[in-house]
Amino acid sequence: MISEYKKILKHLKKKLILLRKNKNRRNRTVSLIHSPTLKELSEKNERSQLSIKIIKYVDELLSEYGDAIWPEFFKNPLEPAQHTVDAANDSDWIGYGDISMSPYDTAWVAMIPNKVYKELKSSKDFSLAFPQCFIWLFDNQDDNGSWAGNGAGSIAPGLAGLLALCFFRSHSGEYFETKLNDLGLNIEQFTIIFEKATKFLQNTLNEWNIDDLDMTGFELIIPYQLSVLARLEKPVVFNFPEKQRLLRENEKKLSLISPEAILTLAKNRQPTTLTHSIEAFCEKIDFSLIQNEGFQAINGSYGSSPAATASVLLHAPKWDNKAFEFLKKIISQCPSYAKSHGLVPTLSDIGIFETTWVMHSIGDLCLDIRANKNVNFEEQSIIKLFSKSHTFIKYLSALNKIQGGTLRWASWDNRIPADVDDSVVSNWLIRQFDPFSTIDLDVITKTFYNGKYFKSFPSEKTFSVSCNVHTVNLLVLEYQRVQSKNKMITILTVDKNGDTKKVTLEEVIPTVIKFIVSQRKKNGIWLDKWNKSPAYTTFKANNLLLSLQAYPNLRAKSGFITNKALRDYCRKTVDWALNTQHEDGSWGEPSSTGPGNLEETSYAIRLLKTAAKNWCDDKTIRTALHAGKKYLIKYLDESMTDPGYFHTKQPFLWINKQLYTAPRIIKTSILTSLWED
């Protein structure tokens, strides 16, 4: 590059000499101005180097990820596709996925007594099946008494930790002090930990507005925990302003999901999402009826949840060796950098969810690369990227075929029902990158569409905006495919009475778009039940709406008479992004890198990249984009190469029974956001 700079400088000097000698300075000045400057050359080189780095990191991520799925993944993706539906009957394999550890689940595993005590109920024989989890509670309590930070999201983990302490005390009985000593602990330590946790929980519950929490099953799990604590031999009772409202929400939920209904599902061995939070029903149902192959996966887990699996070991009359071995395996795989958050993951595993979301971002990246006229498609790095990406599409195609057109988030556990999110995102990828593929929209609409919007799961009582955005993206892609052929796609739906009827895409798409529009908040954002960041759902929803400009009929039926009306509506969301950027260029909640974080910044950038194409002359958008990308680039190498970066230095934004992080998904969003169109 230095020699190139010298050539440019020499060229510029010659031009200056000619300017002085030539009377026709105007023409010569124009000639000089159009020569590339050092700044322009430097910026072009930086963009080129960044593009090379992005492709390199994506390639490494796909390679690492393929190995996690199957050692020979890139040679034969059909084999792991068959394996993930239990075809291999391999109980040693527990799935895959990079996800954070969980204090909530660790505390549940810490409650499990050993097999002898479970059978004999003798305090003398009491010990813990996983003492390391109990000791973790002592070694990792925050100074404020929590195990999971502050706020409403810390309540369920805190109550679980307190229950683990109380269970140990009650099970050990008169041998309490001796059993503590066996673990290298003493009563004084126990008392300090116990009192700090109790004080923290009381203060947090006093300030809690239950509307501020949308964790999975919280209205079942937290009332159960409070009830058990209140009925102990040494009761721990919490009274707080929202308690009665919480109990009413619990009663309402139980009226919709009765214990009898769960037992019926267990008897019929019918997969249900309730298995994922079965710990909330410990004292309401006979857990011996849950111990069957309809509920328990071949690897021993229940609902792909360590907490749910632990609850079966705790409350089923018969010791569950398969469940014990499952927990033993996942604890042995806990990475050292993640132990500060627990010894077991909040989900195990997240294979298909992680695969589809990683490929969702990489799919967007590939589309951007494909649309870029300056890309050399004969470069080996580009060829490798598209080749590896195509292997993942083959994998998802095989999964879809084997599973009948709908997918579940767990990589192999066929006890988890299919969900609309993984189903439509995988189908979107297949349709985008495999023109000869066939997809079945009927099975998706019949399973998940309720006439107004798409449910995440057939039995879901609440909704997800992001799920509906993903679904409409697929439907619009199908609409685009047949539009040039003047065809009309009809799809099958099922009404409230169970009757099947045909509807057109031109009916369904505007209906769901109107639902999405109705969910926007006054400040221009959308919120969701799967990720707490407003930027996550907002960028997806706004980008979808702006894409409707290419389809006047759909746009008009969705309530936007002109493209200008649509852009005016979307501009409020763009302004929200511009007004919420931090001074360092980041967006979102605080992290170790400053007032914002990398994940939310990548989402905001992806929103503004689309906005920049619609408001081409808006300098504020370009300035915000430049600052945001500069922030991401500053931490790019560290975030891509440090395995513990997102476990220890960034906030957890994904929602389950506890907040969690999924590093590979975040990495691909960052890399996609940085690509120059």
Automatic annotation (TrEMBL):
Signal peptide: none
Molecular functions (GO terms): magnesium ion binding; terpene synthase activity
Superkingdom in the source lineage: Eukaryota
GO biological process, one term: diterpenoid biosynthetic process
Protein name listed in UniProt: 9103_t:CDS:1
